[in-house]
Amino acid sequence: MAKLPIIKIGDPVLEQEAVEVPKITKKITKLIDDMLETMYDANGVGLAAPQVGVSQRIIVLDVGEGPVVLVNPVIQSAQGEEIDVEGCLSIPERWVYVKRATQVVITGLNEKGKPVRIEADGYFARALQHEVDHLHGVLMLERMLAEAEVEQVESPVSEGAEE
Ligand code: NI
């Protein structure tokens, strides 16, 4: 595994629609491993492939219950709404309020190419929506309702490290 540089806001790769992964090759498996290492190293809870400069539909997450890998993820349904604070590894030092669905059902493939279906709520649901947004070239700033001061937030829901 290798730690990859995280692409920061301003790079066009973060604004592109990522393409589907046609097949899980060794190269993709290595990319997934590297994305996980990069995410853990950055104390992140999620990372999307465009954030390491690869415009393909892969996300990795760990909201404290172990690694989750989704290739070609699709949000099948979304319910409820809630406003909370998010950060992004590609947008350092910014914390913003974003409205997200509270429950989502998402499908995709795992790292072995097996179809998976995940029902998520709360924090996990928010993180999934944030990462899927990255695959559509959408950053949290586009959804921002207001800027947040991290000091004012007890427990920021974050893609990145919590200070
Ligand atoms: Ni992000």
Shape: globular
Mean pLDDT: 93
Radius of gyration over alpha carbons?
15 Å
Strand-residue fraction?
25-35%
- Give the CATH architecture: Alpha-Beta Complex
Short structural description:
By secondary structure, the chain is α+β, with helices and mostly antiparallel strands. It has three helices and eight strands; from the N terminus they run αβββββββααβ. It has a single domain, classed as Peptide Deformylase.
Describe the overall structure.
By secondary structure, the chain is α+β, with helices and mostly antiparallel strands. It has a single domain, classed as Peptide deformylase (Peptide Deformylase, Alpha-Beta Complex). It has 3 helices and 8 strands, in the order H-E-E-E-E-E-E-E-H-H-E. The chain has a 5-stranded antiparallel β-sheet with strand order 1-2-3-6-7. It is globular. The two termini are 26 Å apart.
Question: SSE layout and pairings?
Answer:
Blueprint: H1 26-41, E1 46-48, E2 58-61, E3 68-79, E4 82-88, E5 91-100, E6 103-109, E7 115-121, H2 122-135, H3 140-143, E8 144-147
Nickel (II) ion (NI) binds next to α2.
Based on the model shown, name its key terms.
3 helices; three-stranded antiparallel beta sheet; five-stranded antiparallel beta sheet; 163 residues; alpha+beta; binds nickel (II) ion; Peptide Deformylase; 21% helix
